[in-house]
Amino acid sequence: MFERIIDFLFSAFIYPDLGLNWIFLGILLSITFGAFWLLLYRPPVFRHRWLWGVAGLSAILTWISIAVIQIPLQSLFGELIIGWLGAAFVMRWLLITGIPQILLSGLVQEASKLVPVIIWRRKVNKILDPKMGLVIGAAAGAGFGVFESVWALNSTFLAGWDLNTLQIVGVTAFAPFWERFFAVGFHIAVSALAGYGLAKGLGWQFYLLASALHGLLNYSVVLLQMRILNSLQVEIYIAALTCVLAAVIIRLRWANPTPPDGELEPHVDIPAVCEAKAAETAPPVATDQKESR
Fold first, then answer.
1. Crossing angle of helices 99-124 and 50-65, rounded to 10°
2. What is the 8-class DSSP label of residue 70?
3. Scanning 47, 53, 242, 273, which has its CA 20 to 30 A from the CA of 216?
């Protein structure tokens, strides 16, 4: 298990026999995917440069958490359930027996991506505007989403993907890129949802919701393995879930939009303003009375 953990950790940084042009292509595509989705939320990354730190910390923490927490727990649970129920039973009822391991992935990854948001909130020691919480969560999701995409795309190139693949299998050769594009969008949206809930004072509730949605996305692997969905349908499933979730979160972001830097609008007391306007336009009764005297 220890060797497996170490191999996974370094698999994101070492790509033997893969040319630099392919590595740079994977990085460029991943950054492009992240930039497209992140721009929909318009995070103030130049005004608040610490958001880059949130993204970077999220990427590293989540990757380490997958290696040292998620993978060992999933492996342990798999061994226990197979030893208890038998491999044949587990495979026959995979739609049910696969749920705990799927949920583990969401619980571990969403918790890790929330850590930078929690650190920032405690550091500033002030009430966090929900929309700013959403933006910070989006930055955290983008950090890991892009990092994971670089690893996944470079792994695809290592497996032998090139232009000849396109000539052999047609447009389905673009499936890995399609999947990564929407996976990055999902990571951003689901982390933004968790950050929004944390700022609203409903941190653990929204964390569980985000973890469940993450598990729902990963459940497509089980549906594919059980042949309920084919590869094309799985890609559509991932795209549809991402688009619906992103639409909801983007609506939250831009409902009664706050200024670009994420600060709240100054509070305006409308009744007081109306009274002031009325006083300005009212006839000077007291003055007239004095003059008539």
1. 150
2. I
3. 53
Any idea what the Cα angle at residue 272 is, between residues 269 and 276, rounded to 5°?
135
Domain ranges of the chain: 2-266
Burial of 148 (0-12, 13-18, 19+ CB in 10 A): buried
Q: At residue 66, what are phi and psi to the nearest 5 degrees?
A: -60, -45
Angstrom distances, CA of residue 257 to CA of 13, 250, 254, 293: 39, 11, 5, 55
CA 86 to chain centre: 36
What is the band of 167 on the pLDDT scale with cuts at 50, 70, 90? confident
Cα(146)–Cα(156) distance, rounded to whole angstroms? 15
CA geometry: angle 269, 271, 276, nearest 5 deg: 95
37-46, 195-204, 208-217, 282-291, range with the lowest pLDDT = 282-291
Say if CB 113 and CB 140 are below 8 A apart: yes
Cα dihedral 115/121/123/127 (nearest 10): -170
Q: How far apart are CA 114 and CA 71, in angstroms?
A: 19
Q: Which amino acid is at 96?
A: I
Q: What digits encode the pLDDT tens for the residues 89-140?
A: 999 999 999 999 999 999 999 999 999 888 888 877 667 789 999 999 999 9
SS3 260: coil
In this prediction the pTM is 0.85
- Quote the tokens at residue 235: 């890609």
Contacts of 144 (CB under 8 A, 6+ apart): 58, 59, 62, 63, 109, 112, 113, 187, 191
Q: How many CA atoms lie within 13 A of 41 on its CB side?
A: 35
Neighbouring C-beta atoms of residue 259, cutoff 10 Å? 10
Query: Token digits for 86?
Result: 């038998």
Which is it for the CA torsion 85, 87, 93, 97, positive or negative?
positive
